[in-house]
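Sat 14:20. Reprocessing the chain from the morning session after the first attempt stalled halfway. Input below, unchanged.
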Amino acid sequence: MSAGLLIEQQRRLSRAVVEDDLAEATSAGGLLRSRAGGSLLHIYRHAYRARLVAALRENHEGLPRVMGDEAFDALAQAYLSAYPSRHPSIRWFGEYLADFMQARPALALHPSLADLARMEWALRTAFDAADAVPIRAEALQALEAQAWPGLRFVLLPSVRLVTLHWSVEPLWRALKAQTVQPADGEPALPEPEPSEHCLLTWRPDLETRWRSLERLEAMLLRAVFDRQPFAVLCTRAAAAVGEADAATAVVAALQGWLAEGLIAAVQV
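Finished this time. Tokens:
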């Protein structure tokens, strides 16, 4: 068998296993040894899908516990059909799950669970982000006053800002506190309330952290993400709190970011 023919057969088999394509599966079935009852292709397809469903469970630990196994498996199978894995690493399977749940509310069971998926994914990606050493406040104290208007702050690679429409943080915290499925008679999980806000996740060391943001701080952090200088941050703060308090508000936020280890570098 030539190398070209082998590669083509491998591609056909891969498409038959990965893509839910009946025509491709039928044509590729002859590439595998047969046994009583037919081709072995369905075994490979089942194993492939089962592993990806397991990956979704690993990447969203709380979601299946809230939804229940049957509902989560139905969601996972539908998601796999809509978004076949395209990344070489199984770790990144599930990137679009929250958006998929929002678009398919019947599968999500409750609209707040899409936000729970967003929070879990943000924490996972923050954990896997590149390492960086946060700077200390002393790095800014040595700067000349005239340099401040043009300062730009570089956030850690792990920093994520996620817009949520439900207060899922108490639910996430309660799920983390549970080691197993709650038994009958145990307190019910908190039910999320509608609340549009911004969630911050980051990893300054070995531990991933998160907190919910007030509107002003979320606005300032988004400006930092957009590489806006300190002067622009003050201008945007002035529109929210007034010119007299703008610089104080920005400096207070900056001090908090430095203390929490969100800033990786400063560009003068």
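The chain has two domains: 1-109, 132-268.
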